[in-house]
Amino acid sequence: MGKKSKRGSGPRPGSNRAERVAARKARQAAAPAEPSRPFAGLAAECDLVALSVFVSSATAVLDLVEPGPPEPELTSVIPSDDAPAVEVPPGTRNRVVLATVLPGAVSALTRENRGVTEGIVALQTDPEPEDIPAALGVAIDWAAHAAPGGEYRGQIVTEAGPALTDVLKADAPLDITVHGDFDWWFVAGSDIPADIAAMVQRAKDTILPSARMHVDSGVGAPWWVDAGEKAHLRWVRPESEDELMNALARLHASGRLTLGEGSRFAGSFRTHGLLVPVFDLDVERHHEEWYDALDQLDTWIGDALAQTGDLSIEERSSRDGLRSRQVTLR
Hints:
Blueprint: H1 17-30, H2 45-53, E1 58-61, E2 95-99, E3 108-113, E4 116-122, H3 132-145, E5 151-152, H4 164-167, E6 177-178, H5 194-205, E7 210-212, E8 221-226, E9 231-236, H6 241-253, E10 263-271, E11 274-281, H7 291-306, H8 313-324, E12 326-328
Parallel strand pairs: 2-4, 10-12
Antiparallel strand pairs: 1-2, 1-6, 3-4, 3-5, 7-8, 8-9, 9-11, 10-11
Helix pairs in contact: 6-7, 6-8
């Protein structure tokens, strides 16, 4: 890649960084002592958790607070280097895309794509930052303003950097594109050296077929994955762990913690402050065949969450069993 750009790495006039640092420290001091939810307060929290923990290859254009360039007009669903370039007014920030992982597990990079400077920011990096939202906020800000051909490895994260909520619209959902390869690492039509192509193929071979599912209520982020001998549903949920665990215990005790024939509740794991129930599924069934059962389970979970009374003896026994099968992921 080209020489690293220093654009976006230093203070800009009117940034009010001292005020932002003081406000962030006040928020941190007021935060309750509970498992960290780095993406709390964002409409996309559950998807951000999924993309940062277990989704292999996916992207989403970010809706930032700062206005961005116009989106290119699509003339085909197939990317092409013959597509028309976009006119971008001087001083406009870059188009920023969120991704699962980038080559070398770097934090971000920039490139020229059809006349627009495009920044790509990864959630899965090496090393993983200690302060995830702060590091992601800085990476997004860098990707939005750096010149094309730059690469960012998290080397300029400081307290004075922008918070995630300073750059990302809190109420914006993610329109996620799931990929079966890593060809999106490169601009369409670009020449890829043979050694790089081999690396990309090896990365592609690790991808398991996945799909982001949706429920009528819109709650959480259910992800289906074909793991070979069986399929799984991992459902990132936004409720507190205790509330969700009680709801799952009520369903388990009544025999409703299921997606029906061909499914089995496998357990749950904690990650980024959220609880993720996991179901084993019949691998012979396409993910779209599970929608009716998923909506039914979502209704049952909603009803169970609405119950405020004490758990019965059977429900407490179910909760103890469910908790004994939990694991915690970073």
